[in-house]
Amino acid sequence: MPDADTLPEMWGVVPAALAVALIGVALGLVVAATDRAVLTGRAAGAAVEPLRASARLLLEQRRTTLAPDRLLWRLGCVALPTLALLSLAVVPVDGRTLLLTSADLVWFNAMEALLWAALWLVGWGPNSFHALTGGYRFLAQGLAYELPLMFALVTVGVGAGSLRTTDVLAAQEGLWFAVTMPVAFVVFVASAAAFAFWGPFAAPTAADIAGGVTAELSGVDRLLVEAGRAIFLGATAAMAAALFLGGDSGPWLPGPVWHLLKTLAVVAALVWIGRRLPVLRPDRTVEIGWMVLVPLTLLQALVVAVLVLTGFYA
Amino acid sequence: MLSDLSGWAIAAVAVLGVLSVASGIAVFVVDSMARATFALLGSFLAVAGILLALDLVYLAVVTALMMTIEMAIMAVFMIMFMMNPAGLMPMTMVHNAKGSAVVGAGAFAVLAVGIWTIDWPTRSGEQPPDSTRQLGEAIMGSHMLVMLTIGIALFATILAGTVLATARGRYDRFGADLTARRPDDPVPGGLPR
């Protein structure tokens, strides 16, 4: 194991923070390119398209609406990519994290919750009917999957006996957590897609309400929201690879390459499956979340707790 | 008491403290429900930042998590119960302004005087390496009874609040003798039943 525990100790604070931000943006680009490739069915040009679209949005003039709440609108737009990058701060890179806290898993969850509130602000800000409807759809959906997601994270914490992501990695030396926690794994990835209001959970931005929260976004604001969404999906894929797929453990290749390969696999699977499912109606999610997923994740936590008591993970 | 902290931590606590009070005041100044909600959230996040500066990571993150969810749910309640559900028009956020100002200023004075005049005990022993683990052991050990009591009280409050808020009960859903096979709901849930 390396001598330094955190990335700032190894590289210095500013280079480490910059490196994590760059990793985040790169992951976001990968997600956007994969999404494009799956949607159009053509791999050619998919990698360039997100860059081209970003440049166009940067140059585009900003539209505005009648009497918007400008402060909260801008705050929400800036918060989305910021929170996505902050959630990446506790994802281990080469066995080290940018922030070493004793409650990494809760930190990740807190960033998701803040994202939840921030997207409602994006819907609220423009003083527009469709955007506000989208914001409230997102709140309603969040109520459904926040609890299952928390229990999925609790399961990981119970299995590792720690809330630190580096300890979670260490606990998977023998066996990946995905083997004993399949339900938690699926719930974690699905809720992450839901927090990024993407794929089957894209009702807040659906076409039936003219784009919902994104209806009035233009220029830099739209770029920030779309980037935040893509970076958050990438960060979650990296987190899922670290929490459930053993992170950087693997034979022959160096650790970071393994983590990258696993992250790319999660992104590919997420996009490939997510784009093949229909958009869920938001009024259908709460009952499924609370009547099916909460008992399932509780059961999963119970199984893992019993395994811990029998010394399975020791 | 403050001597345990480094210079930047004291500065951070001071700045965040002022920020927290300022956004707390902003809650009563702004004229929109959304701004009031998020000013309150900003105040709580500043408190979470103070806890972070004091190296109590778990408490800090849980404060941020819980308060954010709370404010989001407040926005849900906004559409359920407000006379102006969208809240897009300016509205006054203050009820009983004089009374609440007196109560708030009084509580602030009592707490501030108490904090600065009490002879706080000095730390005995070392700072624990992992405050999260120590907190967990306290909650699951010596303070379990308190936590259980609070938990049940909170749960009862949630149930009571829901019962008071909802206009429809099980007799509306399943009929007078509760024999209907499918509940009669205005909005169907997600499960096929």
- Which sheet architecture does the biggest sheet of chain A show? none
Q: Which stretches of chain A are low in confidence, meaning pLDDT under 50 for 5 or more residues running?
A: none
Overall structural domain count of chain A: 1
- The DSSP helix count of chain B reads 7
Query: Helicity of chain A, in percent?
Result: 55-70%
Shape of chain B, please? extended
Q: In angstroms, what separates the terminal alpha carbons of chain B?
A: 61 Å
Which descriptors would you attach to this protein?
heterodimer; A: mainly alpha; 12 helices; 68% helix; 0% strand; globular; B: 193 residues; mainly alpha; 2 domains; 7 helices
Q: How would you summarize the topology of this molecule?
A:
The complex is a heterodimer of chains A (314) and B (193).
Chain A lengths: L6 H5 L1 H28 L8 H11 L10 H19 L15 H21 L4 H32 L4 H7 L5 H4 L1 H14 L23 H26 L10 H20 L10 H25 L5
Chain B lengths: L6 H23 L3 H21 L3 H25 L15 H21 L13 H10 L3 H22 L4 H5 L19
Helix pairs in contact in B: 1-2, 2-3
Structural description of this entry:
- The complex is a heterodimer of chains A (314) and B (193).
- Chain A is mainly alpha-helical and 314 residues long.
- Chain A has one domain.
- Chain A is built from twelve helices and no strands.
- Chain A has helices at 7-11, 13-40, 49-59, 70-88, 104-124, 129-160, 165-171, 177-180, 182-195, 219-244, 255-274, 285-309.
- In chain A, helix 2 (13-40) packs across helix 10, helix 6 (129-160) packs parallel to helix 12 and helix 10 (219-244) crosses helix 11 (255-274).
- The radius of gyration of chain A is 19 Å and the shape is globular.
- Chain A starts with 6 loop residues before the first helix and ends in a 5-residue tail after the last helix.
- With 193 residues, chain B is mainly α.
- Chain B has two domains: 1-93; 130-178, no CATH class.
- Helices cover 66% and strands 0% of the residues of chain B.
- Chain B has seven helices and no strands.
- In chain B, helix 1 packs antiparallel against helix 2.
- The termini of chain B are far apart.
- The A-B interface holds A 69, 71-72, 75, 101-103, 106-107, 109-110, 113-114, 116-117, 120-121, 124, 127, 132, 136, 139-140, 142-143, 146, 163, 281, 283-288, 291-292 and B 32, 34-35, 38, 41, 57-58, 61-62, 64-65, 68-69, 71-73, 75-76, 79, 86, 88, 130-133, 187-191.
